[in-house]
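Fill in residues.
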């Protein structure tokens, strides 16, 4: 049976508080009492619980990373950046997945209020349309830093990429390659990141005097099979697009599969471009043109700022949004 501080207190007829202070070499406790406590602790083979003591001091040396998913290579790379920064500072990283559910995200942040973690890095779910649950955590003194998917209505630090500009340039690229009927696949109208990409796409069409069909922006779901049926129906229609922009990586495979089943050639019949960090993008047939995001750098920068805040008592996070640019990599799917 493990020996607790309470058991030590009973053995020495001292208070739990005195035992705790003696074991942490507090100046409030006499040298004689400290010696008595240490001897008894050694005699009973007492082993301190660092996690429990860190909770009492609200320092767990742990940060939480709240993500909508990890199937997307962006988040996998971001985790690598976060863990590199955390390990350098002696912190642990706990990964929490919302699976694109607002209710799960809300429950997680409520649970964090008990001091389980010292700080939080978060990329919100596709369903997240409010921020009360995030503000409540901040109000409890737990710092929060956003990355990639952010909430503008929360006053804290945020790390994003240039989504509007990237989408604008991606659309111009397809227009320059001859596309005249573009479709844009998005996952949520509640996410700032989705709306920024849609606006970049729409502005590029407007600047080139290209009409935008009413059904040009396709609102996809969190269900892979449903997305496939939706994309296949789009590519089977009379107004079949000659170019597709997938705003997230997971919408790329359904496009390739639908084209294969419908015997549509990429890029001759349909040009395909995706926001993606897939390492296998050059190996696809044909190789996929991508907007590649600075996932590792974004994750590491966000973690470094959070850790800097945690290591400085009473440090307050800035409210600015830091933008790390993405890169358009042209491959055979659009050329």
């Amino acid at each position: 049976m493990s020996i607790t501080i309470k058991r030590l207190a009973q053995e020495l007829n001292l208070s739990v508080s005195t035992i705790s202070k003696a074991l942490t070499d507090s100046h409030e406790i006499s040298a004689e009492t400290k010696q008595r406590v240490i001897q008894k602790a050694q005699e009973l083979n007492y082993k301190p619980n660092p996690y429990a003591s860190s909770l009492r001091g609200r320092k767990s040396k742990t940060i939480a990373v709240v993500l909508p998913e990890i199937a997307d290579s962006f988040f996998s790379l971001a985790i690598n950046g976060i863990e590199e920064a955390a390990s350098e500072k002696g912190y642990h990283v706990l990964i929490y997945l919302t699976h694109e559910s607002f209710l799960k995200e809300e429950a997680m942040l409520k649970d964090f209020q008990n001091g389980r973690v010292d700080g939080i890095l978060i990329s919100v779910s596709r369903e997240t349309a409010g921020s009360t649950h995030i503000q409540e955590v901040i109000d409890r003194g737990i710092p929060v830093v956003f990355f990639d998917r952010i909430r503008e209505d929360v006053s804290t630090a945020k790390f994003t990429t240039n989504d509007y500009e990237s989408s604008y340039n991606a659309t111009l690229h397809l227009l320059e390659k001859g596309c005249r009927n573009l479709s844009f696949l998005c996952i949520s109208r509640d996410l700032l990141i989705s709306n920024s990409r849609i606006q970049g796409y729409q502005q590029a069409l407007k600047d080139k005097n290209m009409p935008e069909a009413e059904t040009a922006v396709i609102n996809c779901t969190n269900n892979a099979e449903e997305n496939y049926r939706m994309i296949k129906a789009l590519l089977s229609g009379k107004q079949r697009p000659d170019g597709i922009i997938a705003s997230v990586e997971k919408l790329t495979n359904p496009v390739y599969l639908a084209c294969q089943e419908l015997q549509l050639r990429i890029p001759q019949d349909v040009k395909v471009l995706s926001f993606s960090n897939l390492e296998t993008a050059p190996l696809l047939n044909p190789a996929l043109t991508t907007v590649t995001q600075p996932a590792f750098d974004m994750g590491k920068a966000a973690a470094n700022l959070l850790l800097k805040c945690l290591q400085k008592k009473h440090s307050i996070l800035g409210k600015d949004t830091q933008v790390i640019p993405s890169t358009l990599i042209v491959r055979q799917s659009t050329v």
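Residues 163-292 form a domain with the Rossmann fold fold (CATH 3.40.50.2300).
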